[in-house]
Structure formats: C-alpha cells, structure tokens
Write a structure and sequence with these properties.
The chain has 55 helices and 25 strands. Strand 8 and strand 9 form a beta hairpin. The strands form eight sheets. It has a six-stranded mixed sheet. Strands 4-5-6-1-7 form a five-stranded parallel sheet, sandwiched between helices. It folds into seven domains: 232 residues, Rossmann fold; 95 residues, no CATH class; 209 residues, no CATH class; 167 residues, no CATH class; 136 residues, no CATH class; 116 residues, no CATH class; 47 residues, no CATH class. By secondary structure, it is an alpha/beta fold.
C-alpha cells in the first residue's frame, strides 16, 4: 500500500493553514472554518466558561471583559479567536446559524449540554465584531491605538477611511439618517461607486466636500466651509481611549433603542504581541484601551487579544515597563480567560485535519509497527534528552506516520528558535509557516516523493531543513555554508548527499539545548525507513561527521557534535591556542577549584548504621572541615606527576597521622587533556564576556558555551576522577591495598565501603551506642517532659527499662555518670563542651545530640542539676534550662553536677497503695521514678477528662461541685511537678482527700458523657418554663419540676443519680402539662380571631362602612391567624389569647369609630338599626376527643363553650349551636 492511500483526507489537496480574523465576508468560507475546527478537551472547557461568562453579563455587570490567547506559530490562536467571535455574533452562514454549525463540532463533548445552554442565550443579544490583524493595518506602528481602532470602527459602519471626515461629516449625517444619501451624492458627483471611492478618499475629496454641502446645506454652504471645519476639528480633537469607548457606547445605545435587545461590541486584536514588540508606549495604549472598556463598558465592550507569548512574558519583554502602569490591573481584566495553546492542542488538530488514517491505512501502519516494535521504539525516540519528548508507542506511531512522534513536537520548537535567533520573534514577513503547512508540504513536495512510496518508509528530519530553506526561514549565511560543503571538503573521500543532510540536522537542533547532539541521536534523525537500525545508520553517519570536522564545519565537544559558523569557528580556534599554553601548575590550580564531595561521590563514611563526617582533602586542598578523621585523596593528575603508594605508606606511620587515611587515584588516560580543554574554554569564555565590543551573536555563543559545553567538559573531568577512584589504593598506618569495586556500586560508594572497614579500629567503643538523633531539640524536650511516645531513635538509646522506668545502668547514662563522678573526685568542673568532646571523639564517636538527650534524662530523674551562670536548675520544665540543653552553643557553657536524692520507704509504700487503688495497676515499682511516672500518667488522663468537662459545663451552665474544682486544682499542681521526689511528696501531702476528689471528678465526667445533651435540653426547658409558670396550675407538674430544678442547681447536685432521675421524671410530666396548655392557648386565640373575622362580613355592610375598612380589618385578622400557626416559642404561645383579645378589641373600636353618627345641619341623624348577626357554632369545634372519657374532659369542653358563647352574646350576636 502506498502512503498516499492510507489517509482519510485528500492529502495532496493543500490545506489553507492561515486563518485571518479580518476575513468575514465569505459566508461559505466562514462556515467551513467552523466546520473544520477541532474542539479539543481544553478548548471545550475554555469556550464553555467563556460563553457562560459572556451570557451571564447580559444580566450582570463585569470588569472581566478580556480574552488573551497565546501560543507558538501555527497553534491556532487566530482560528480560536475567530470561532469565539463568530459564536457570540451568531451570524447566519449559508442559511445556518454559526451556533448551530458549532454544535455539530461538539457532538460528543462532555460539556455539550452546558455549551448549548449558553449558545441558546446568545439570541438575547446583538453583538458586533470588529476583527483585524493589528500588525498589518496601514501605519499601525506609527498611529496611536485609539485612533487606529476608531478608524476601523468607522469603516465597519460604512464610513470612509479618512478619520476626520468620518467623525465630522459622516458620523453626524448618520445620526440624522442621511448617511446613505451622502454616499449616493458622492457617487453621482465622482461618477464612481462608493467602494471605489473608499480606496482613495483624498483623490475624491472635491466630490466629498460638494456632497456634504448638498446634503447639509444648512451647515455647509460651500466646499471651503467643509474643508475649514475639517481643519478645525483636526486641530482640536483628541482621539484617546476615552473618546473611542464613548463613541462605541453611543453606538451600542442607539442599537439597543432600535432593536430592543442588549447590544455588545467585541474587538478582536490579532497578533497584538507583534504590534507591541518591546515598545512600552504601545503596551500602555493597549492597557488604557482595555481598562477604559472595562470601567465604562462594564461588559458591553469585549476585547480578544492574540499573542505568541503569554501575557506575563509580553510585559517582561517590554522596555521600561515601570513607566507604563500596573500590570496587575490589566491582568485582572483577562484573569478568567487566559488561554495558552500548547503542542498537545496542535497535535490533536493535525491528527484530525491531516494525519487521520482510513481503516485499511491504519491497519497497514499498525502492521509496520508490529513487525519491528522494539526497533521503532529505539529509532523513534531521541535519548538522554533533558526535556521529555513524545514516545514512539504504537498509538502515536500510527497517528503521526510517516513522521516519528517526536518530530512533530520538534518542528515548531526549531522554527521558533530560528526566528528568535534572527531577531524576528515568530513572525516571518510575507507569510506564516505553520506546523500544518510544513508537515503537509514535506509529504507533498519533499526531497522524496513520499506519497508514492510504500508504507514503511519514514520522513527523515533533514526534510524539515529542505522545507524551511525553500520558504526563506534558514539564515542566509547558513544556507551559503551548507551549499558550499562540496567545496569545503577537500579529502580523498568526497562529500555525499548524506554529508549535507548530516550538517542540516545538526544545524536544525543546534539551538535545542535539551537534545544531546550525539552521533546516536543524529543517526536517529536521519532514519529513512521503519526497518533502519541504529548500528547501520550510525555507521553511515560517522564518516560524514569526520569529513565535516576536517572541514571545520563541525566540532566535537565531548560526545556531542556542533555545526560551526562564523563566531563559533573563531571561538574554537582561541580555545585551541589557550590549551597549548597551559602549564602543569595551571592544571593543578584549576583542578582544585571545582572538586567537591559531589564529584568524589561521597561526603560521610557509613559505620554501624550511622554516617560519620571526615575532614576530606583533595590534593592537599580542604574539601570538608567537619569530622575527627583526616582523609587525604590524591587525584589522577597527582598519579601522573609521580606520587607513589610507598610515599604515602611512610607518611601514614607518623604519630600525627594515626587518625588519617590516604587514597591514591589510579592514572586515567586523557584526564589531563580533558582538564586542559575545560580550563582553556573557561579562560576564553571569561575573556569574551569581558570584551564589550563583542557582537550579540558572540555573547549568545559565550552564554551557550558556559551553560552547556563547559558544564559537559567539567562532567568529563569529574568522570575521570571517578575512574581514578575506581582503581585507587588505600593506605592506613603503614599498609595499603587496592579497592575492590562491585558492579552495582559507583566509585564513590566503593571507596566509602572500603574506608568504613577502618572505623572499627578508629572507634572501638562506638558499637555501645550506635545511635544518631535526628530531631535532637524535640527529643530533648520529650525526655524533659516525660513524653512516653518518644521517637524511635530515642528509644534506641535504651534509657528506659522494660517497665518504662529510667535505667541508670544503660550504656549512655552509665558512661555520663562515671565521667562526671571521676571529674568530681578530681575536683574538676565539667562544662557541656567537655562532655561532648569526650564522647564524640575516638574511641567513642557517639552522637553529640544523643549525649545531650542523656543529660536531659538525668535531669528528668532528679539525678543531675544544671548550673547556668552559677545558678542551679533542677525543674525539667523550666524554660531557661530547656533552652540551654536544646541549643548546642548554650549547652557548651553550662556546668553539670550530679545530685543525690532520697525519700522514706513509708511514703513510697502509702503512695504506691493509693496509686494501685486509683489506677487499678499492681505492677508499679516502689521507687520515686516509677511512682512519679505512673502518677503523671494517671493525673494527666484525669485532668484531660476534667478539662473537657469544664469546657462543656461553662457554656451549658452546669453547676460543678466544689469537690470537683478542688480535685482538679490538686492534680494540676501534682502534674506540673516533674521532679519524681517532689511529685511523690505532693501526693502524699493530700493523701486523705485524693480518693474523694477522683470519685467526684469521675462522676461528673461520666454524667457529661452520658447525659450532657439531655441536661442541656432540660436546662432550656426550665428556662422557657420559668417564663410562663404563672399561667400554669399552681400545684401542677410544671411547678413541681421547677422547684426540684432550682434546688438541684443551687446545691450543685444535678449529677447525683437519684436527683437526676427525679428531675427526668418530673420533667416528663411537666412536658405533658405544657403541651395541653399550649393547645388550649392556641385554640382560644384562634377561636376569638375566627369569630371576629366571620362577624366582619355582617358588620361592614350593616353599618354601611367603606369596603376598604373591611379589607384592612380582615387583613389584620388573617395575618394574625397565619402567624399563630407558625409560632413555636412557649412564652409567645402563652400570650396568644391576650394578643387575640387585644386585636379583637382594636377591631371593635375601629368599627365603632367608623359608624359614629354624623352631624347633619343642626341635629344628629342616628343610623338605622341593623339586624343581629348569627354566630353558627359546632360542638366539634370545642373538642377532638370522642368519646368523652371522664368528667374532667367534659368540664374543659363546657368551659371553652361557655367562653365562646358568652363572647358572642356580648358582641350582640345570636348563637346557633349545632
């Protein structure tokens, strides 16, 4: 199958790669641009958010009126901007609306429904679009932005291109409805169409002036007056952002009045970044325009901007930005819609529009991949890149065939680097090369006729050079150099086509610093077939590279190759000259400057699970300064200069070197040459950097050499040191042996392992305490506070025995006590630094942090006191003591003294018995430390519970017994004491009270846990009940509950079991009584109001009162009834009958006032008597209980009935009972 036959699209038909936002006349083309648009997942999210925001602003104002679209060349910025504009405008394109066409592009979108909702709302608004490429407008760089946009605005309205004539004549006549007449008259006078006249207004100025006189004779009598008016306007008019925005808003206001719809204007400023360049004034104009549109328009004027770089980069590139306003302010206008199109997006577009395979084609490509999957993964992926490139998986290979996936990623990067190097940004005069265009052109018209080749052949990367060369992208100097390869190479073996192709791919990737330019990667770039393997292609490429190096067109830098032109050749020649001048002492001095522990591959020596520092010297130059052991390493350069193992053996026997180890690196071939190259290049770089006359290209080359090539050369020297260490000789106390590297170890790791074997001799006592404390400050505080849950490294110190008590016989504590005791016996004062020095140096090598933790443990146990400025400290919780133990510098200055303590056996026995009773634990040692420890645990747990209860009791208004408070204070005093002796004695002093305290605290804690919520409900009930107790039966259940409650709270005995049970019982009875009362109060109030409401229907007409009075009075009664049903508070429910009575009385008074007799002449005219109103009452109104069970229920019904009937009769009504 041919490559031509695998594609779903007609691959030979050229796709128009450039979308122009200003081309908006051809409806079919616009429809096609929507129909071909690929909506990726990311774009789908952007458009969904944008459309939702845009349509929301039809109802709300906003200052976020901007969309900033950025992306490299060909990423689809203009297309996306155009799509957004077409959607909000929603024109009909070839009989179908833009939104309907777009819906077809999101048929399977996850956000389809959301986007459709926004699209349907667009018909609520008329949106006008003003779109153009800023950079291509006539005089765009020399004309201010407001004037530029105003001119485009006027032209969009059909005015001429002369801004002054448009503003003074056409805009004014347009307001009068005479614009069309003006243009008709101009056409008649000029005998040309208006479209032709617009192209050259100056030529037809006479016709324009005469037409103005004919259409507006009341304003202009002669053409001279028109000309004078235009001159006056040009002198006095200020076309700034405010003027432009006001003109646009006036236009939108007129449209809204005409159409009856909301109106919007959207400016699409394509390629704004190229228009701005690095001109701060232009950026300031854009900023002023956007800010004015946001502040004055509040969502009526929108701005879409497209740039190659993102918004932040545009601002960084502008010179003297500080004079042009606040970036953050304009950023806020685009904050919601900042869209950055990436390679991933354009790859999806390519896949859809160009590379999409048909069924048989996809199958054929897959078979090609399956035939050599491993080979293709190797050849289709560049290696050791510092930036992740697309892998050559089956899926990606099938998608982008006949290109390798990584090639699609590299093409835009290469074009961008070329344009940046040429000072053109990403704009190419005359055209814009897109990834879509480049890839299609390579397949259609490359060096090889790919479309007619069999499936399996691949696009080699030199095709990119060939394509860019034909479009003028390649630097002319480079084109000339590569075209002269035939002349430059004068060797026995003449250059071939492959020689040139090798040079081309080296040039293409020379600015992509993340790609190593190794021979392997060059070979991969030149693969031509899916069956090509690395070994074969490498063999073809290698001789071509040698030809290019001989011709000084390519240089080899380490393992990489570089294409040389101009300054690069000069630089390499200077490096060669400098290299020849270096002497031995220059090499030694230069080597010493960059060697570090990272170069050596180690910094510390492992021993018994710990890492030991050592004072490391490299060729007698100190590399590290910490540690007690000296480690002298001699480089391959020293080995080449004649240093021998026997020399070092003699030196190691000296008394002052008994704690020193010597390492002599083996000789390494080429080490001195690599070092020379590195030092020579470094010198040339520094010389060029200091030369202010160097060109920008030279400065760029220096930066490249310094940041990449020099780094690579340094790495080569470091690798030479590692190679020397791999075969080094180790010397210690007169004997030597060669290191034995293991396959899995680095040279540094091997040497570390070798050196660690000597640590047993140097530190024989280390194994007694092979522990390193990492977080020493935390560890010291934990031990001082008696924290049980200490870190694992503290546990490894074995300070405590199995029972959790301090073990004074542990290796650390025993050694500290013996050392202090010995010095005390010699009457020597011991400072912290004496202690640290003793145990960190050989033969101990113990961790100084661990020693300080041991001191903290002795202080905690009461066996050691600290003197700070001669003042003794024994309390472990004292802040000064803690600080002086935590901070190593402070610890060095403190004095340490052993302290003897004692307590009687009787006290210990009684305290232990009490603790067993309280805690239930019997295994408690009868020692101060053990008792204090257990007392601390018990007391802390009890206090935690008590404090939790106190935090509940305060807001709950729970009365705590005095015994609870006294017990809490007693245990707070006990727990705060950290000296075991002091804690034990304090407990003993309150021995007769402690049990009672504990019992009370436990009881209250248990009550809160079990009944806390019930108590709060009961308290709220009591508070509510106390407000209405006078309305309840005097000897009822509610009164009884309140008496019990007041007595219990006053005595603080609510938590007592019998008291609490009694309160719960009486509350339940009171609850029932209150519910009955609430029902009665509601019924009474409801009945009064309902009766009065019914009576109003008779009172108003009978007394001949105004109907409005009746509506007002009945409204008050109905409102009361509605509120009555919603009332929940007990106090308010109890007051409802009184409120109802008051309301009814007010209604009666109002009626009486309204029906008072009026004075007529001299006498009073009495109103005619009205018939009595009948109140119809039903027995069921007074009870819901059927049958009536007892006499009490019957009396209650009679009482309610009597009240209602009596009230009706008093109101002058007749009563009908049924």
């Amino acid at each position: 199958m041919l490559i031509h036959d695998i594609f779903q699209t007609a691959i030979e038909d050229k796709i128009e790669p450039v979308i122009k936002v200003g081309e908006r006349q051809d409806e079919r083309k616009l429809a096609s641009e929507i129909g071909s648009y690929v909506v990726t997942f990311t774009i789908e999210k952007w458009l969904d958010d944008f459309l939702e925001h845009y349509t929301d602003t039809l109802l709300t104002q906003t200052g976020e009126i901007g969309v900033w679209i950025s992306g490299y060349f060909g990423s689809g910025k203009s297309h996306l901007a155009k799509i957004a504009a077409l959607l909000v405008e929603n024109r009909t394109l070839d009989r179908i609306s833009a939104t309907s066409r777009f819906e077809a592009r999101i048929a399977t979108s996850s956000k389809r429904d959301s986007i459709k909702r926004s699209l349907t709302r667009l018909n609520q608004c008329n949106t006008r679009i003003l779109a153009f490429n800023l950079n291509t407008l006539v005089d765009s760089k020399s004309t201010s932005l407001p004037r530029l946009l105003l001119s485009q605005f006027y032209q969009a309205k059909g005015y001429g291109g002369n801004l002054i004539y448009a503003r003074v004549i056409e805009a004014e006549l347009d307001k009068r409805g005479k614009l069309e007449e003006l243009h008709t008259v101009v056409e008649r006078i000029a005998k040309k169409t208006w479209a032709e006249i617009q192209k050259n207004l100056s030529f037809y100025s006479k016709a324009l002036y005469q037409a103005a006189c004919e259409v507006a004779p009341d304003t202009f009598r002669t053409p001279e007056e028109v000309g004078q008016a235009l001159k006056d306007a040009e002198k006095g008019e200020l076309y700034n952002a405010q003027f432009l925005i006001r003109a646009v808003l006036d236009e939108l206001e007129t449209l809204e009045k005409t159409t009856g719809k909301k109106s919007r204007m959207m400016f699409v400023l394509d390629e704004a970044g190229q228009w701005i360049e690095d001109d701060g004034n232009r950026l300031a104009l854009l900023q002023a325009f956007v800010e004015e549109a946001a502040e004055k328009g509040q969502g009526k004027i929108w701005v879409v901007v497209t740039t190659h770089e993102d918004m932040g980069s545009i601002y960084k590139n502008v010179k003297k930005l500080e004079t042009h306003g606040d970036f953050k302010k304009i950023e806020g206008r685009f904050q919601r819609h900042k869209w950055n199109l990436t390679t991933e997006n354009i790859e999806l577009v390519l896949e859809d529009r160009l590379f999409k395979k048909n069924g048989p084609g996809a199958g054929e490509v897959k078979r090609v991949y399956d035939a050599n999957p491993g080979l293709l993964r190797d050849m289709g992926q560049l290696v050791k890149t510092s930036q992740k490139l697309p892998e050559c998986s089956e899926e990606r290979f099938t998608t982008f065939y006949p290109f390798f996936p990584y090639q699609i990623h590299l093409i835009p990067e290469i074009v961008k680097s070329m344009r940046s190097a040429g000072g053109r940004g990403e704009q190419l005069a005359g055209s814009t090369r897109t990834l879509l265009a480049i890839t299609q052109d390579i397949m259609r018209a490359g060096r090889r006729n790919y479309l007619q080749r069999a499936v399996g052949e691949m696009v080699s990367f030199d095709e990119v050079y060939y394509n860019l060369e034909s479009s003028g992208e390649i630097n002319p100097d480079v084109r000339r150099e590569i075209s002269r390869i035939q002349e430059a190479i004068l060797t026995a073996e003449q250059p071939t086509k492959l020689t040139r192709r090798v040079a081309e791919v080296l040039y293409l990737i020379h600015n992509l610093t993340y790609i190593p330019r190794t021979i392997e990667n060059v070979a991969r770039l030149l693969a031509e077939d899916s069956a090509d393997d690395l070994v074969t292609v490498r063999a073809r490429v290698e001789p071509e590279l040698k030809k290019l190096i001989t011709a000084k067109l390519v240089a080899k830098l380490g393992e990489e190759y570089e294409f040389l032109t101009g300054e690069r050749r000069t630089f390499e020649q200077e490096v060669s000259d400098e290299q020849a001048s270096l002497r031995r002492q220059d090499l030694e001095k230069g080597l010493a400057k960059f060697v570090s522990t990272s170069v050596l591959g180690f910094e510390k020596i492992p021993f018994k699970g710990s890492e030991f520092s050592a004072r490391i010297y490299f060729d007698e130059t100190a590399v590290t300064h910490e540690g007690k052991i000296n480690l002298y390493i001699f480089s391959p350069l020293e080995a080449l200069s004649g240093t021998k193992v026997t020399d070092l053996e003699d030196r190691s026997l000296r008394p002052e070197e008994q704690q020193s180890i010597f390492v002599l690196c083996d000789r390494v071939s080429g080490f001195d040459e690599n070092l020379k190259y590195y030092l020579a290049m470094q010198t040339v770089i520094n010389r060029w950097k200091g030369d202010g006359q160097k060109s920008p290209d030279a400065n760029k080359l220096v930066n490249e050499r310094e940041t990449k090539n020099l780094v690579d050369l340094k790495k080569k020297v470091e690798e030479g040191i590692s190679e020397g260490l791999k075969r080094a000789q180790v010397v210690f106390r007169g004997s030597s042996h060669a290191v034995s590297p293991k396959p899995s170890q680095t040279p540094g790791e091997t040497l570390r392992a070798e050196l660690s074997t000597y640590w047993q001799t140097l530190y024989p006592k280390f194994e007694k305490l092979p522990v390193r404390i990492i977080q020493e400050q935390k560890a010291i505080l934990d031990v001082l506070k008696g924290t049980k849950d200490v870190t694992s490294d503290v546990r490894e110190l074995k300070l405590f025995d199995k029972a959790g008590q301090l073990d004074l016989n542990s290796p650390l504590l025993d050694a500290i006590r013996i050392y202090l005791s010995t010095r005390t016996s010699r009457k020597e004062h011991t400072l912290g630094k004496h202690l640290i020095t003793e145990f960190t140096e050989p033969p101990y090598g113990w961790d100084g942090n661990a020693v300080r933790v041991g001191v903290a443990a002795l202080v905690r146990s009461g066996g050691l006191r600290i003197l700070i400025n001669k003042k003794p400290y024994t309390n472990p919780l004292d802040g000064d003591l803690q600080d002086n133990l935590r901070v190593s510098k402070n610890f060095d200055k403190v004095e340490l003294e052993l302290e003897e303590t004692d307590v009687s056996g009787e006290i210990l026995s009684k305290v232990r018995s009490l603790l067993i009773t309280l805690s239930g634990k019997r295994k408690i040692d009868e020692t101060p430390a053990a008792l204090a420890e257990e007392l601390g645990i018990f007391g802390k747990d009890l206090l935690d519970k008590a404090n939790k209860t106190v935090h509940w009791a305060e807001p709950a208004d729970f009365p705590l017994p005095t015994n609870f408070q006294d017990g809490r204070e007693a245990f707070q005093k006990i727990v705060v004491l950290t000296n075991p002796i002091h804690r034990v004695k304090e407990l003993y002093s309150q021995l007769d009270k402690i049990e009672d305290y504990v019992s009370t605290i436990r009881a209250i804690v248990e009550f809160e846990e079990k009944w806390g919520k019930a108590y709060q409900e009961m308290r709220n009930f009591a508070v509510a009940l106390s407000g209405v107790d006078y309305l309840l039966p005097s000897n009822g259940f509610s009164q009884g509950f309140l008496k019990n409650w007041e007595a219990a709270t006053k005595a603080a005995i609510i938590a007592q079991k019998d008291v609490w049970n009694r309160l719960q019982s009486t509350k339940a009875e009171a609850d029932l009584e209150v519910e009955r009362a609430k029902g009665e109060w509601l019924d009474t109030a409801r009945t009064q109001v309902q009766d009065k409401l019914a009576q109003l229907t008779y009172d108003i007409p009978n007394h001949k009162l105004d109907s409005k009075v009746g509506e007002s009075l009945s409204g008050k009664l109905k409102t009361f009834l509605e509120q009555l049903e919603q009332e929940k508070q007990l106090a308010k429910i109890a007051g409802l009958p009184n409120r109802a009575t008051k309301l009814v009385n007010e209604i009666n008074d109002t009626i009486e006032l309204a029906k008072s007799p009026k004075i007529d002449g001299g006498g009073i005219v009495e109103p005619p008597p009205s018939p009595k109103e009948v109140s119809h009452l039903k027995i069921a109104t007074f009870t819901s209980q059927v049958p009536i069970k007892n006499l009490q229920e019957w009396k209650l019904i009679l009482e309610r009935m009597d009240q209602t009937v009596t009230r009706a009769l008093n109101d002058g009504k007749e009563v009908d009972l049924s």
